[in-house]
Design brief:
Elements (H helix, E strand, L loop, with lengths): L1 H17 L2 H11 L7 H8 L9 H13 L6 H13 L9 H7 L2 E3 L5 E3 L7 H18 L1
Antiparallel strand pairs: 1-2
Helix pairs in contact: 1-2, 4-5, 4-6, 4-7, 5-7
């Protein structure tokens, strides 16, 4: 069943990364099954709102994850992450649970949903797009 679900949703997820924003809403409507979850189910839940993190700590951790897994590269992403870390209580020694989860690739959505960027059937292209979105969000915190 899960394999069938993944194969059915994969083309829609890929299409969502390529379509202009007005068409994104139509694809997102097809993906949106509601609820909390990880992997593709989490992506479907995130489709009901912007794919943004609910906390600065989670964004900083996600940047670390994205940089460490080569979804983001260059001094720009590292510099943004370092500046963001400076704003967290404890700096680079932060105990923020959102940061910890972000380093594992877990995006805590501002709408309460959870998206696991580290697996669950997500393609590298979808994860890369999520990392680009997280970087843009991180810049808005600075």
């Amino acid at each position: 069943m899960m394999k069938h679900l993944m194969s059915g949703l994969a083309p829609l997820v890929f299409a969502a990364t390529l379509l202009p924003s007005s068409a994104d809403a139509q694809v997102e409507g097809l993906l949106n099954k509601g609820g909390h979850g990880t992997g593709l189910k989490g992506l479907a839940g995130m489709a009901s709102g912007p794919m943004t993190s609910g906390s600065m700590g989670n964004v900083a951790g996600l940047l670390q994850y994205c940089i460490g897994n080569h979804y983001l590269s260059g001094e720009g992403a590292s510099s943004v992450k370092d500046q963001l870390m400076g704003k967290l209580p404890g700096g680079s020694e932060t105990k923020d649970p959102g940061y910890s989860d972000g380093r594992k690739g877990l995006l805590h959505g501002s709408n309460g949903n959870l998206l696991d960027l580290s697996g669950g059937g997500l393609t590298a292209e979808v994860t890369r797009k999520a990392c680009d979105t997280v970087l843009a969000q991180a810049r808005s915190f600075l």
